[in-house]
Amino acid sequence: MGKSESALRLMPDDIAWNIVGDRTIDGITDVKAMCEDAAAQGTPNFQNVRVIRAKSHVIVEGADLDSDMHYCDIYAIDQSEIVEITSYCLTGLE
Length: 94
Fold this sequence. Notes:
The chain is built from 2 helices and 6 strands, in the order αββαββββ. Helices cover 18% and strands 46% of the residues.
C-alpha cells in the first residue's frame, strides 16, 4: 500500500475523506481501497511546502513536482486519530 500504511493506522473505521469538488470517501475500507488504487498508479513526486499544526488539525500544502497539481489537505484530529480529511487539489496554475 506504500506510504499510506502509517497514516491508515491512525484512522478510525468511520473516517471521512472529502475530496472537494469530486467525492467523499466514507469508511476505512474505502479509504484503503483509494490508497491502493493510487499506489498502483505509481509513486507521485510530492513535495510538502508548508505544514501547520494546531490543537485539533494538521494542514499540509504542497505540489506534485512532476505535474501542475497543487494540494492542500486538512486533517481533523481527535484523541490522536485522524477522524476526517478534507483535500483540495488544483491543476493548471503554472
